[in-house]
Amino acid sequence: MAVLRVKFTKSKRDKLAQVLWILNWVSVLTGIILFGLGLFLKVEINKRWELMAERDVHYVPNMLIAVGLVACAINFLGGKICYDCVDSAKFLRWKLILLPYIVCTFFFTFSVLAGALLCYGMRGELEDALTLGLTQAMRFYKDTDTPGRCFLKRTVDLLQIEFQCCGNAGYRDWFYIQWVSNRYLDMSQKEVVDRLRSNVEGKYLVDGVPFSCCNTYSPRPCIQDQITNATAHYNYEPQTEELNLWMKGCRRALLDYYTNIMQSIGLTVLIAWLFELSVLMGVRYLQTSLENVLKQGDPDSESEGWLLENSFAETARSNLNIIKNLGKCNQIDTADNGDPNIDVPSPAPSTAHYGPDNVPPKEAAKES
Amino acid sequence: MVVMKMKFPFAKRVKLAQGLWLLSWLATVAGALTFTLGCILKTELRKRAEAMDNTEIHAVPNTLMVVGLASLAINYFAGRICQDALDATRFPRWKNMLKPYFGVACFFTALMLLAVIMSYAMKGNLEASLKIGLKNGIRFYKDTDTPGRCFQKQTIDRLQMDFQCCGNTDFKDWFEVQWISNRYLDFSSKEVKDRIKSNVDGRYLLDGVPFSCCNPSSPRPCIQYQLTNNTAHYNYEHQTEELNIYVRGCREALVNYYMGLMNTIGAGVLSFFLLQSSVLASLRLLQTSMEAVAGLENAEVETEGYLLEKGVKETIMEYVDPVLKFLMLNQVADGEEQAATA
After folding, report:
1. N or C: which end of chain B has fewer CB within 10 A?
2. What would be one Pfam family of this protein (chain B) (predicted)?
């Protein structure tokens, strides 16, 4: 009982082969697009490497790149096969390769699906990486004289300007770290000394933020220092003031940005997966119908194509048996310590039928 | 006095027609590119239109767009004409159209060259427009509550951050303008009253700049206020400090940006102009050499082709005469009517 049996006339077979040839080339294009998307994601993540802590986020773009390249190769081969399938003489060349090709492509589509799902699943890792990375970056904001960290200030400033965000979760994060370097603090001033003494670690903490937190849409000139002090500035209420600084945290801003990219990429990969699957089904139909034509002998006759020869359950069982027996081909029976020289009587009834045991020797009696 | 007479044997004519067909398709693509470049330039100019006082500079992208579209049509027809040129039965139907076609084509090609010249020559115009536009922008920076000006602050802030510049000529322009609105000044404080009394117009002037002038590449947190006062900040010397705020003026930054863009586009359009001129010249040579064949039994003889039958001046008069006659004809007709009624 075949799965999804379809009858194919010669012209229908030829048309199927031609359509599949074109579709395979479109799939090659899809493979290139997947490769491009993987590359784009890798570049985007690398651009902000300074703001991400060491987390394994590169496996998603790497997988997309690999899948894209393999898809190109597989579909290129598929295109060539389908091109040759129009002519049943040329089909014989590919006959032996076709079934393994279909099986390989079937498993490959699983990896495409895995790539799509990973895109959606990467968000958690990315959030961890960003939280830690941004905390570190803000801590080293003032270290513009330390080699390896001297551009962190510029990176954080440009990030806050471009993504219109401030701090890690919000602007208050800047109140808990020292972002003004000691080089620019006048240690002889009383105010500075007081601030340094006011906390355990001796850090110069202010209720102020860097200039990059300033909101360009604010109607008044930016208030960067003494943000929580309503009396320090005329006509200013810190509780209700929302336009002065960027309210969004940079972690949320970056996460939203990357989530958008990954959702679009994930959607594209899902569509590519569906397309690959449909092309694969077409190739399977073509293979089975051509094989049936060869079995029938007449290349112009009508033949049947199917997805699976028997039902799902039977095919699964037979495949499992094949896999089980694959492992056994070199194994000998392990009874009696596995010594092949000992005769182990087979259990009755014997499986080989050599005829009944008591046949009188007719020819010998006649001759003698 | 014929201009550029050349002999054309049959094989050369055929090769000319084939080469011309290819060239005309290239020139069509070039025309489309010219149109695209004009659109890009116009979009870029409109993005910062608020920093400019007038839109005279828009003549350059407008001309490019018109020329691009015209060149698409001209080169399409050039391709069709040269396809028909070698066929004696189809060529005569183009006969009447060729003279006005060449007139129009030469006009638009000249316009292309004019656009290139304009893109280099309008630098002064652009600079003057930016000077006035930026001056107004800085003056109205504080007027975020005045309708029509409420987005000036936003525009100037974005401009200074995107182009990494400060002020009109340089950052000192901010010292001469009151850029903090009176709504946010505490008039009961002595400092504010002193500053307002210190100048004739009663403006609150200070030696400070908005936050958008701050340079993110500076190693120290941005110093915006009391810029000229060395003692107000620890370890600070305003004469030698270069990294704190942007030292470049926005006018210079914008002029450099737009001139760079227009120079690149101008160079491209110049090459398209040369391509277009060669297409027209080849088409003219093909036309004149094919016209000599018309009516002859043997179409494969050698003929002569030329660019202009008469000299340059006479040819121009030939084109201009019908236009003048058209204008003068009306005048004469009016005169005759008046004579008739009188």
Report:
1. C
2. Tetraspanin
